[in-house]
Amino acid sequence: MEARPTVSGVSEPKQQRSRDSFAKVCAAVLDLLHERGTGQFSLAEVSARAGVSIGSIYGRVAGKAELLRAVQSQEFDRLDLETAQRVSIAAAGATDFAGATTAIVTAYAELLRENRDLLAPFFLLGVEDAALLDRGRQSGDAGQQVFLRALIAAAEEHGVDLPDAKARWAFEVFYSLSVRYLGLGVTATASPHDAYGWRELLERLAHTVFLMTAPE
Predict the structure, then answer these.
(1) Beta strand 11-13 pairing with 3-5
(2) Confidence class of residue 1 from pLDDT cuts 50, 70 and 90?
(3) Domains defined along the chain, listed by start
């Protein structure tokens, strides 16, 4: 069956059955990534887990690297959309800038935590695959912009003068601490899980961002 090339380079079949088979393959990849925390698995394992032949997989992708890129693109597109939806409205109803800051920080941090098993292996895989690294950076940049727009909008709503540079620096501090705590990428060896729990971390992060962005 002739397939149509997509923007990501993965062939898009015309038959629903073929699309369903590739969806099973992608789900199998996600399961293996979650279980192992790395990309240390073979296409044979993916084939067995998905119940789809190796030949069918190669009919869609050139190899494991391309399959990982397809899965990353699919999942990061989902995460980008979810980030935009949840973070942009997080501060709605906040009675003051401190409350708005807490809501925005919590919404973004919770998304990182909920998707840790997805993000962690791609942080590591991006070290050796420039395409994975670039796609990850695109999502990181998109998430940063959503956070900044929400924070600056909240500042305007509550009469706080918040320069863009100050907001960006607050995000960098917030994001770095969140990533470190969650043990993503090369920071995994520096995760301070034993120092304090997740709820306390959220309180500390929100307070830090508020202090960095509130009027002096």
Answers:
(1) antiparallel
(2) very low
(3) 3-62 (1.10.10.60), 71-213 (1.10.357)
